[in-house]
Amino acid sequence: MNNSGSFDVEAFGAHFRLTAGCADACATLDQYALPWLPRMEPKAGKPDVAIRIDQAAGEFRLVVNDALVAAAAEPPGLVCTLIQVLDEAVVRRLTTLRAIHAGTVMYSGRVLLFPGVSHAGKSSLVREMVRRGATYFSDEYALIDEEGLVHPYPRPLLVRDGSPEQHPVLARELSARVGNVAAPVGWIFALAYSNENEWSVAPVSQGEALMILLRNTPHTLLQSPEMVGFFQHAVASASCFAGQRSEAADAVEKIIEMIGA
Questions:
Q1: What residues contact 15, with CB distance under 8 A and at least 6 apart?
Q2: What pLDDT, on a 0 to 100 scale, did the predictor assign at position 4?
């Protein structure tokens, strides 16, 4: 991408155009906007989603389809909102896949899911798994097809590190392997963080795991009734667990012991 200009990205059937007018804003878009996908020259026609970073009145503004969504003193201050905007746009436009809010890694050829809402600590578990050699798929969404296979969505991780504010971390900054092919689910761990640093995790049935996935999808059953079948196939070959976890490093050590066994 040039120091100022536009590029297009195709993601899961959606066409994005990203535009900036200065070198810093261009570098920010190129670094954090769906970074695992190739950049293309803008093509003819209107994109599904147009995102740009403008500079005006001494600040940088993130504009999506001509609507102002965020402002910051410098382009990096827009990154978390940019990532979330892209997430929402991708999920809304999925056709052959359905999404679950879940940290997602591949370990020994199978996918491990950490389903949970925002602030549930998915990113900390994913980052710790990646440090232990897992392949990074996503810290926010598991994208599941009709056969129950999980497709990578390796967006930048948004981590807190004990702070209420998130900050982005690229997979390459963790020296992480990044998934590029779909894989079956091997394990599902629905874990709530315990302030007492308690580890209390027990097996649950695949039926219970299915309900956990349905509670953590952004899709509605009325609009996407077929997702039940997608998720049933996903849990069919999985070992499923639920409970309370300790700090991420300790929890991941216990998880690896369990799945290794």
A1: 8, 9, 45, 47, 48, 49
A2: 57
For residue 200, what are the β-bridge partners?
244
Q: Are 155 and 168 in contact (CB under 8 A)?
A: no
How many angstroms separate the CA atoms of 87 and 156, rounded?
A: 11
Residue 63's domain comprises 5-92
- Same domain assignment for residues 164 and 249: yes
Query: What SS3 class is residue 115?
Result: strand
Q: What is the pLDDT of residue 198?
A: 86
Q: Which amino acid is present at 112?
A: L
**Do the Cβ atoms of 189 and 111 come closer than 8 Å?**
no
Read off the CATH number of the domain in which 141 is found: 3.90.228.20
This prediction has a pTM of: 0.94
> Residue 237, Cβ neighbours under 10 Å: how many?
13
Instruction: Using 50 as the pLDDT threshold, list the residues of the chain that sit under it.
Output: 1-3
- Rounded Cα distance, 23 and 83, in Å: 19
Residue type, 33: A
pLDDT of residue 261: 58
Same domain as 154, residue 85: no
